[in-house]
Amino acid sequence: MRNNQHSTEILIEFRDVSLGYGRGPVVRDLTFSIGKGDFLGIIGPNGSGKTTILRAILGGVKPSPGAINVRPGLKFGYVMQRQSLDEIFPLTVLDVVSMGRLGNVGALRRFSRSDLDTIDHSLSITGIADLRRKSYRDLSGGQKQRVLVARALAFEPDVLLLDEPTNDLDIQGEEQIMRLIRDIHLSLGVTIILVSHLLNVVFNYVRRVMFLKDKRLRIYNKEDALRPELLSEIYETSLQVANVDGRFIIVPTGDNNASSQ
Questions:
Q1: Taking phi first (over 0 means left), then psi (-120 to 50 degrees means alpha), and beta for anything else, what does residue 91 get?
Q2: Global confidence as pTM
Q3: Which residues contact 51 (CB under 8 A, 6 or more apart)?
């Protein structure tokens, strides 16, 4: 499916792309673009190819066939799914966030004043400046996730890629992380590409939604995607959409015959 709903300045473009790891495609015939300032949510079941698309954007998976065009000089920040640091080492929050700056200065160079200011800003915008001397391994799950987001921001990315950023968080932690991502998008103008399997997380924050199913994609503006009949058809179960105090809630109705409607 081809999509023409994007910002004027295209940052990333997929043209008839198939992606896989040697045993046939995980996803195929992907044609879409991501514009500057976009906030795209990628939704699909486990194994549908969501993470594969992120890896392809980063150059870790090559299309066969097809072409992926990335604007020259584009900088990416990547927060990986269920990422864990080796907690044998007593890394502080500052140590971890500073790692994000190494892509700019190299491993053997000292940080400049500008680098240190960028690290401080990343700590501040993610709300963890007061934790800078804390051991990373002693933090809560939500705090660790903020540290990993701050590390990605320290690279000063144009595009922030997040793979299941609310995994293993409780409802409060999930909401706090998603509000942080939204604030980063709005205040810094960073383009966001968010992978998640949680419909209620995605729909309350993104601008556009990409559904992956049966190795193919469908992509919609959020408002167009929030149709019960469409969601029910995609997920093959009857779903209802409610708006409660300005928040979208997607729930099953218990009717298992939705796919035949």
A1: beta
A2: 0.89
A3: 81, 163, 195
